[in-house]
């Protein structure tokens, strides 16, 4: 029985997932973020080993062949994968793990870990999503419509998740996320594993 929980956070782009996840990681040091491997090129400001491990397609394929990924998927033409070894190490340390992956990866992980918790981040309205996707107005209408269609496709998978967090206000959405994490930590089996001595003392005691 493991002490930690795997949390899978999925969101369509434009739902504000990254800001929310960073706020959660700052607020709760016991939640560790998995850094994925990807074949896509780094965006401006992205740091190798921090935002992603940026690798070539050849190396990614070798890693697949060696069975190094817990899950991997192609998302909009690039490959993304979660390190099997890192997850195993973090679970052995009793840490909670956060996977920021797409719905396909979420499927794969939940097949392997039935007690992994799926959290879907939703925008407060279609209009808000569209405004966020339009960003600073630098993209063409065609690009924006493509992103919107992709976001709607992602949202069509919301029913496959345990929790839905609506990101209208960052503070409220962060509180919601923290509540989900805390609830899982208080599950009886997790508590019994974490406090084995206490449980055996009390159960072997007077009541
Ligand atoms: P981006 O390239 O914008 O950072 O991410 C594109 C999509 O890939 C997002 O939906 C993101 O959650 C997903 N993604 C990032 N890392 C992984 C991963 O390791 N596995 C899977 N399946 N999806 C990932």
TrEMBL record:
Coiled-coil ranges per UniProt: none
Principal location: cytoplasm
Pfam families linked to this entry: Guanylate_kin (PF00625)
UniProt GO MF annotations: ATP binding; GMP kinase activity
Known EC number: 2.7.4.8
Top-level division of the source organism's lineage: Bacteria
UniProt binding sites for ATP: 11-18
Entries under InterPro entries matching the protein: GK/Ca_channel_bsu, Guanylate_kin-like_dom, Guanylate_kinase, Guanylate_kinase_CS, P-loop_NTPase
Cellular compartment(s): Cytoplasm
EC primary class: transferase
Every Guanylate kinase-like domain range: 4-182
Record bears the keyword ATP-binding: yes
Keywords, in A-Z order: ATP-binding, Cytoplasm, Kinase, Nucleotide-binding, Transferase
Similarity comment text for this entry: Belongs to the guanylate kinase family.
Role summary: Essential for recycling GMP and indirectly, cGMP.
Full protein name: Guanylate kinase
Gene that this sequence comes from: gmk
């Amino acid at each position: 029985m493991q002490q930690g929980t795997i949390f899978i956070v999925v969101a369509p782009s434009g739902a504000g997932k990254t800001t929310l996840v960073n706020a959660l990681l700052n607020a709760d040091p016991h939640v560790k973020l998995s850094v994925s491997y990807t074949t896509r090129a780094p965006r401006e400001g992205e740091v190798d080993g921090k935002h992603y491990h940026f690798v070539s397609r050849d190396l990614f394929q070798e890693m697949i062949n060696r069975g190094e990924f817990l899950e991997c998927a192609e998302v909009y033409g690039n490959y993304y994968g979660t390190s099997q070894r890192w997850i195993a190490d973090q679970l052995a340390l009793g840490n909670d793990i956060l996977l920021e992956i797409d719905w396909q990866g979420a499927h794969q992980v939940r097949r392997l870990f039935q007690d992994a918790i799926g959290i879907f981040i939703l925008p407060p309205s279609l209009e808000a999503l569209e405004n966020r996707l339009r960003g600073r107005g630098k993209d063409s209408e065609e690009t924006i419509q493509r992103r919107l269609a992709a976001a709607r496709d992602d949202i069509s998978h919301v029913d496959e998740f345990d929790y839905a967090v609506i990101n209208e206000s960052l503070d409220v959405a962060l509180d919601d996320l923290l509540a989900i994490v805390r609830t899982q930590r208080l599950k009886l089996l997790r508590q019994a594993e974490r406090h084995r001595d206490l449980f055996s003392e009390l159960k072997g005691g007077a009541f």
